[in-house]
Structures are given as structure tokens and as C-alpha cells.
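User: Continuing from earlier, I have the next pair ready.

Assistant: Great, send them over.

User: Here they are, in order.

Assistant: Folding the first of the pair now:
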Amino acid sequence: MKQHRTSLKDLAKELNVSIATVSRALRSSTEIGEEMQRRVKELAKKMNYRPNPFAQSLRKEAPKIIGVVVPNLVTHYYAAVLDGIEDEARRAGYSVISANSHEDCEKEANVVDNFIGLHVEGIIACLAQTTTDYSHFEELASMGIPLVFFGRTCLSDRFSSVTANGDEAAMMATQHLIDTGSRRISFIGGPNHLDMVQRRKHGYLEALRENRIPIERDLVICNKIDYQVALEETVKLLQREDRPDAILAFNDIITFAAFTAIKQLGLRIPDDVALIGFTDDAHAAYVTPRMSAIVDQSYLMGVTACQVLLGHIQGDTKVQKKIVPQQLMIRDTSAKNKK
């Protein structure tokens, strides 16, 4: 059985102090009193704490490191954002270390802890869908480690963020569905506590209100961001007698789950069910019928997030809120009355 390696977080928890206090005490910082230094060092010895040699090597050979944590590295969106971050970081002389939280809050907190141990200059993060406790991010502020969120954000009064105009884009997409003949439009999203879900759902609802279309709660599905879950939810939705005649899907995972469900049930796109998804343009253009999509400028989002972080690293303390516009690409899956 693999032995657990004692971390700074373990020591901090045992002493009921911050990770910052433990880190400074181990370095014999004058900011920490002699008694606390003694307690920390004694506990570190007792718990067999060993500094990470990889981290020490990185500090000697490449001290300018940025950490990036994303929920799902295999999707095109996060890969493109990471490309933008890496290119911008490289231009400024920084290296990038990325890690995958796998949409799990505990794993996300462990990644942040590891980045602290690596003495990164700053962190860029997109929240995992299960994250509702933000203490691991608040810890960064107490340690003076700059943090910028992108996509899914939190603690907006304390940390800078780079987001898309999801509310406006969702409103435009829903209006397009209405203008091309759809009336019972469903929104299939992710967990309601995510700000990204809230923005996109808000735009969808506003479009319905402006067109005096009744809002039906049964057509608004906000569940786990997972392909199988979204597939099953869409199938249930489409098997109803009063099924929707259009779907606005929250992201690429849910979009292609909905696309598959419609086809599995033998329904025609867009004649029976129109579909628009928030997804990347590369995949949307190469399915049949070609997907109407709300497309992120994900590479630009990565570049922008890195620029904001670099500003913080260089001493800018102002909280920044940047918006990277999305683009509505109309193709074949959405226009019912297209000739």
C-alpha cells in the first residue's frame, strides 16, 4: 500500500495554522515567532516531513513558474486555453505546470497544495464543478500568491477573472432558435452553483421573457457535467409527449450527449429538435448535420488570463474582470425553417 507523504497542508492542519505559517516557520522566517518555529519543526520531524526534491530543483533551475489547474484536460476548450497561457508565459520568460482536477474539489485542493509546495509565482484556475468550499484559494491570498480564475470563477471581489459573455451569447442563441421556428426550448446545463451555468441560463431565460414565451421549469435541466448523465437526461426529456422542439446545451460534453440522444431516438435535427451548443468550432463543423455553436475564443482567454496574472506577479493589486466575447456560428442544426 502506498504510504502517504506528509505535506505542508498536513502540518498546518495538525497545528491549526495556515500553510503560509508552516512554510515560513520551516524557512526560519523572522515573520514567525521562535516558539511557533520550534513547534513546526518538531512536528515536521515527528511526521517525517521531507521537502519535495523536485520542487527544490525547479526553484534552482527555473524559478519563474506558473501553475494552471483545469477541470478536464482532454477537452478542446481547456487544451486551447492552456495553449494560450503557455505561449504568453513563454514570451514573458515563465514556465507552466498544469494539472487536472477531474472536476473534483478535493483533487483541486491537492493540486493547489502541490503548487504551493513548488513555490509557483502564481496560479490560473478554473473551478471544478463540485467546488463549493473556496478555502484552498483563500489560502493563496494569505500567502501572497497571485491567483486568476478563468471560465468558472468565485470570490470575485478578491480575485481577478477572465470570463466569456455567456449571458449575451445564450440570449442570442435562444433568440435565433425562436426566430427560426422553435417555441419549446430546453436548457441543459451543469450544477446551478457554478457562475458559468448561472450566466448562460440567465441569457436563455431573458430571451424567453422578451419573447413572452412561458418559462417551463421542466425544460430547464441543471445536473452533473457528465456525458452519460446528460445523455440520459436528454433521452428522458425527448421521450415526453410534450418534448421540447429545441435544446440549448451548456458545454461540449452536454452538447454532444444531446446530439447523440436525438439521433438514438430517431428524431431529425433540426426538423424535430433543433440544437445549439456551447462548444468548440473544430468538432462542431465536422458532424452531420453540421452543428450550430456558441464558440469560445479559448486561446485568447488563456492569453488574457496569463497577462492578468503576470501583471499581479509584477505588483498590480487591482482586481481585474476581463470578458472575452463568444461567437455564434449558425449552421445546420438550429434553423427549422431554413430552405
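And the other member of the pair:
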Amino acid sequence: MTIRAAVLTAVGAPLEVAEIELPGPGPGQVRIRLAAAGVCHSDLSLSDGTLRQPAPAVLGHEGAGTVTAVGEGVSTLAPGDRAVLNWAPACGDCHFCGLAEPWLCAESGKAAGTPYATLAADGSDLYPGLGTAVFAEETVVPAHAALPLPAGVPLTDAALLGCAVLTGWGAVHHSARVRAGESVVVFGAGGVGLATLQAARIAGAGPIVAVDVSPAKGELARAAGATEFLVASDATAKRVRALTGGHGADVAIECVGRAETIRTAWSSTRRGGRTTVVGIGGQDQQVTFSALELFHFGRTLSGCVYGNSDPAADLPRIAEHVRSGALDLSGMVTDHIALDDIPAAFQAMREGRGGRALVVF
């Protein structure tokens, strides 16, 4: 079948909308017609080489849609089912899965290195970005990379569950383990940051401080749950301490992936507090700490992959909050766009503008 997709022809090249030939699902696979796909900063990192991705490729890993066909041996989904894409499906058998850490699964990235479709123009192989390739009208993925969408969640909004919401929710509830009454500061009010702010609010945190380089993000951040909003500056850590009784936040969550921001998040955390790094930075982003401060402050610094989440277990819990109105998915979206508009959405992310852009099919 011929469909339209946004194709990364080479690392560093702009995306080009082109026709591709997508085969039917093979054994253990499902074919999904996309309803929507979120434009995530990780897609930008794949396109510019910060994260590795064979090319040419169809990017996009945050999506939801309807199953149109299933391959031999698939029993978890059927045509007509609504599904959320899971870009890091766990194998269940590797060392990390055996440790009950499916977010670190050694096998989850294999699909990204296997061609899944071809360019209609010349028949050249195409790779699926992060194994999912949702910047396209349809995609084919392993069945365990498609999770049944819980009832009561709008299909278009559900795209955000595939990355931003699971990551932000998990950063709060799994990695940082935020408790009611704890103070939280969130660096970055993009898609993941907005989800993190909502998760902190649902956890009963307070005060909740949002920090971003753009003053225009203040309204979005407050709607998501921030009680205070700061425009990033050299005095950010000092201002966070002033808002948290002079001690610093119990928890700092960094959603940007820059050395300077990680360092500021650490400095904004109280003695004995927790700093969680969600943002994905490049190898050139080096963060420095002195041995004395590591001892003196007694803080915990941790990385966070996909929110340290188990999507199959977390999606039903998150859906309960969506149905109750506590978690607002549509409020995170600042732009509804088409495939042709993804390069402009990438540029907006580079400039720190907007929340989540959502490709609607």
C-alpha cells in the first residue's frame, strides 16, 4: 500500500514528505492507521544525529491510532482496536527485564535498525524511527509495541501518552518518587515538562515551580500545575531556594538535556533532595561536580529513561486521571499541524517555543 510519510533522507537533512510503500503485517506484527502523532524533541535529536538512527528513515515515536490488520500469531489486538504506540517495548527475557526494569530492556531498540518499508520513488529501504515511524499515515510495528488504549481517552489526544505523558508521569512517580507536600521544580515547559508538572500536581506536591527560557510558557505551566513560574537566569537556583523556605526544592526534574540546566537543577535542590534528569543531551554536554559538594549536600542525582515506566502497567493508571479530568492532554497541545509542518515544529523546539505540536491525520 502507498501512503504519505515524512522522510529523513540523511542525518542533518530536513524532513521531506514523500510516498512510501508499506507492506502488510508479518507474523507477530500489526498495522495501524495513525490518528495523531506528537512531535517530540527526541525526533529532533534523531534527525540531527544527537541520537543514532539509520537513514533514510520515517521518524516519529509518539502516536496513537486504529489497528487495520494483524499478522499471524497476534492475539493481543484485532482490527478496529484503538492503540497507543510504545517505542521501547520490553522483551521480557533480557537481564534488565529480569530485574523488573523494562525501560532498560536490551532488545527494545532492535526494530529501529531493521528496514520496514521502501520509498515509492526508487524502492530504497526505509527504517522506522525508534521502531515506530508514526510520522506517516500508517505504520507496521511488532504487536508488543502497540498497547490497547484504555476506554474513555480520546484517540487523538492519546498520542501524547506514547512518550510525553509516560515520561513525565514516570519521572515524578517512579524516578523521583514525589510525595504529597514535597516541593518540586521542573526545568523546561515543553511537552514532557508540562506532563511532569501535571504529574507533580496529581501527586500532591507543593509548591511546584516551573522554569523555562521563554516568558510565554508561564500561562501553559500554570495551567499544568505550576504554582510559580520563573524565567531562567543566572539567579534561578537562588530564586528557587527563596520559594522553598530557603532550603531548595525537595525534588528537581530536568526536562531539557543541557549541562547548564542539569547543573542548575542540582543547585536548586535542598540538601538530601533528589535531582532527576529526563532531558536527553549530547555527548558534548559535560556536567561537573566537586567531590566536596557531593559529600556535603547528600543529594541524589539520577537519570530517567522513558520515565522508568512500564507502559502496560502505567497506561491504565494514567487513563483514570484522564477520565477524571485531573490530567489534561489537550491542554498540552499548542499546535495542531500536518505532516508538511513538522520541520517548522522542529524549529519551534530549537527556539523553545510552544508546548506539544500534534500531527493530526
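Worth noting for the second one:
The chain has a mean pLDDT of 95. The first helix runs from residue 41 to 48.
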